[in-house]
Design goal:
The chain has 164 residues and is of the alpha+beta class. The protein folds into 2 domains: 71 residues, Nuclear Transport Factor 2, Chain: A (Roll); 68 residues, no CATH class. It is built from 5 helices and 4 strands, in the order ββββααααα. α2 packs antiparallel against α3. The longest helix is centred in the middle third of the chain and has 20 residues.
């Protein structure tokens, strides 16, 4: 039995048309086209299947296209800030420590960290992680770590800082 089916769908300003033609023997010719708003063809392809080949081919196409679609729907990578993944220099460490200690404990640690992240072109997570290494308490702005809190964050990870 011969027949023709046509399906149309529009996504992201491209109209896709899928046309399926079956001949009297059961062989299928599948044509896919895609046109943008100006009528320019941006996608096209033809698939010819023997009689009885539609089921397995449909399964394979479905699996393949589902996997490919997963790449399209992933969130784009976040843009990195200027100094991301760069080593901290001694001067940057000194500037960060001094800036942290210049804030009173009444300032929101989260807001101070965000501000320092912008100033130092680092992420807030990078600033928060660096503060204990500079003997600064990341939970209270303007405060140094006490012996107790230094033990909790790992005293061995904290280099001695000269306060003179």
């Amino acid at each position: 039995m011969a027949f023709t089916l046509e399906y149309t769908s529009t996504a992201r300003n491209i109209t896709y048309t899928l046309t399926v033609n079956a001949d009297t023997e059961g062989a299928l010719a599948i044509d896919l086209t895609g046109e943008d708003e100006s009528g320019t063809r941006v996608a096209e392809g033809t698939l010819t299947l023997p009689p009885g080949g539609a089921t397995e081919s449909a399964r394979l196409l479905h699996q393949s296209l589902t996997a490919i679609a997963g790449f399209e729907t992933r969130r784009p990578r976040r843009s990195t800030v200027g100094n991301a993944n760069q080593r901290w220099t001694p001067d940057e460490d000194t500037a960060l420590r001094e800036a942290w200690l210049s804030h009173p404990p009444t300032d929101s640690a989260t807001e101070v960290i965000r501000s320092l992240a912008t100033t130092h072109q680092r992420s807030p997570a990078a600033i928060r992680a660096r503060l204990p290494r500079l003997t600064c308490d990341p939970d209270v702005s303007g405060r140094l770590l006490t012996e107790t809190t230094a033990t909790l964050v790992g005293r061995d990870a904290i280099p001695a800082v000269d306060d003179t």
